[in-house]
């Protein structure tokens, strides 16, 4: 008896194939999707265009993810390859420019790590700390949104270098993680501090050398009040501002002059040429148990929207991942 | 007949001598005093102390000036030496630490230049442009308070390097100077621009690579809107904010991230070890006619307070100097 595929099965089979005539393309089966704060900015129309293309209403959202190649007409990729990079928030995605994908070199580690500690956020932490902040052993380092995907790693990189590290987070549970799991020297729950500047003065009686900026707004003002001479601010993101119609003004920016502060924004994709060096170092740290990592896993593609929105309320504890499929 | 000195004459003679027992000191006769925006901050009480000591009510104000040594117990200084450095706003000043004074190497140039183009403001322009802003030939450079002591030189250094240079100033007279005397490519009167961001877009259709920041506030916001990728902001001062009880907030500081902007504050005194190199270069430019310079001279010590206050209203055209004595 001949087995006849249903229309649905045929349609699905079609999704898994590179369309005929499409050279140098791959089809990805998406496994893990990454929820990242920068995605909020893609929901706003930018004119002139931003470094990241705006989302197009009606089209599939794109973002970083971990995927498996299920079809390929590109010589560098074969069926079964595991990759991370920009993919769609869907089950199968056709990629016509697969050179933007990184092959996964360490599939023995949890694959979801390539949405975080070994992916874009981990590399962001590495670049923003080691390349932008010019850190030195013994310096005082403050990290906001410290329990997030990037912050938890910045703190651990700073501890490995021999810095004194304090983090701010939005719940007592996260503060516990910072102090007891990630090895921060101190941490505080910013929601419970009536005066952020005083909280920082308490944690840094001698001031802050390096601020890894993830939140902006009132926290940035409080930090400027507490920076030391020749301090550096590595500006990675300002999540507190992304959902405001009118951003908060920073009223004490003048302090960068008497304090000789260098404040520098960066975008991790500018640095992707150095990714493999970071990957080698960080995999080694993970295998030696010198770095640990916490993820917040949402199960199923249908959970993706609420998982993404949750970032902006600080609901996630650790890196927010969405599992589409475990293999 | 014996000439008997009056009490007044005796008191004045006393002022011109290093007190007995005071080793390694000099007495200066002050010739030219410099009015500089940073002095405003010394009128505010700082706790912890700022890089510059606060003025002490009842004591003589100090600032940069050009002076002649009229008595000395220091081996490096002899009567008749011309110097520039920190002195008092008075006729004669006792300096017990003369190593903070620079000897004047080029007395053939107008001595008042050592309050400006060859003194602290000129060196500020040099350091802030060449050492902080990392300029490259062909870049787009914007300067606020561009007709002031620092701004006029930044623009000329930038033109000598081959940059496209635009300045903002607060009167049509100053705008004329920028375009026709200092050789700026373009300039505008910010008081006549209803929308600073649009004015900058008009002058820089491709955006700004380097902003030499002298004013802060609304101008800084407008600049951030118009900066190019990998732009640099050399933060020298924010004069628009110094007399405000509540400084204006900068609402678009987040732009430093997508635009990868580096913003850096500096204080010229950190760089004084390199002063002689700057002096050599700039004297050469002056003698070759490659750099020009405009001063606003107030005659007499009694004019000093109003000259200083005038800075904050933009009354001065060019470097504000007070003449105490011409020799």
Task: Describe the model.
Two copies of one chain form a homodimer. Chain A is of the alpha/beta class and 327 residues long. The first copy, chain A, is built from eight helices and 13 strands. Chain A has helices at 7-15, 120-132, 151-161, 172-180, 196-203, 217-226, 275-287, 304-311; strands spanning 26-34, 62-72, 82-88, 92-95, 102-103, 140-143, 164-169, 186-189, 208-213, 227-235, 262-265, 295-299, 319-323. In chain A, the strands form two sheets. In chain A, strands 1, 2, 3, 4, 5, 12 and 13 form a seven-stranded mixed sheet that branches. The longest helix of chain A is centred in the middle third of the chain and has 13 residues, at 120-132. Chain A binds chain B through residues 41, 50-51, 216, 220, 229, 235-238, 241, 246-267, 270, and chain B through 41, 50-51, 216, 220, 229, 235-238, 241, 246-267, 270. Strand 11 (262-265) of chain A pairs antiparallel with strand 11 (262-265) of chain B. Chains A, B: Residues 26-322 form the Enoyl reductase (ER) domain. Chains A, B: GO terms for molecular function: 2-alkenal reductase [NAD(P)H] activity. Chains A, B: This is Enoyl reductase (ER) domain-containing protein. Chains A, B: Homodimer.
């Amino acid at each position: 008896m001949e087995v006849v595929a249903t229309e649905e099965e045929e349609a699905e089979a079609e999704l898994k194939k590179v369309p005929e005539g499409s050279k140098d393309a791959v089809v990805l089966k998406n496994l893990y999707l990454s929820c990242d704060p920068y995605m909020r900015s893609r929901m706003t129309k930018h004119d002139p265009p931003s470094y990241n293309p705006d989302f197009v209403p009606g089209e599939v959202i794109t973002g970083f993810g971990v995927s498996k190649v299920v079809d390929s007409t590109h010589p560098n990729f074969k069926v079964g390859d595991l990759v991370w990079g920009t993919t769609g928030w869907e089950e199968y995605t056709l990629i016509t420019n697969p050179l933007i994908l990184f092959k996964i070199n360490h599939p023995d580690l949890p694959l979801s790590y390539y949405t975080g500690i070994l992916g874009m956020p981990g590399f962001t932490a590495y670049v923003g700390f080691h390349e932008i902040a010019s850190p030195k052993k013994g310096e005082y380092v403050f990290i906001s949104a410290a329990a997030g995907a990037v912050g938890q790693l910045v703190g651990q990189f700073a501890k490995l270098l021999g810095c004194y590290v304090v983090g701010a987070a939005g719940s007592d549970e996260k503060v516990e993680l910072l102090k007891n799991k990630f090895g921060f020297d101190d941490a505080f729950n910013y929601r419970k501090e009536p005066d952020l500047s005083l909280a920082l003065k308490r944690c840094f009686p001698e001031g802050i050398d390096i601020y890894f900026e993830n939140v902006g707004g009132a926290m940035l003002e409080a930090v400027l009040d507490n920076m030391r001479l020749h301090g550096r601010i590595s500006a990675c993101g300002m999540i507190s501002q992304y959902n405001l119609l009118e951003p908060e003004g920073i009223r004490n920016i003048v302090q960068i002059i008497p304090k000789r502060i260098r404040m520098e924004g960066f975008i991790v994709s500018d640095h992707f040429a150095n990714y493999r060096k970071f990957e080698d170092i960080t995999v080694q740290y993970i295998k030696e148990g010198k770095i640990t990592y916490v993820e917040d896993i949402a199960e199923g593609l249908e959970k993706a929207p609420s998982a993404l929105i949750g970032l902006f309320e600080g609901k996630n504890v650790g890196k927010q991942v969405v599992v589409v499929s475990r293999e």
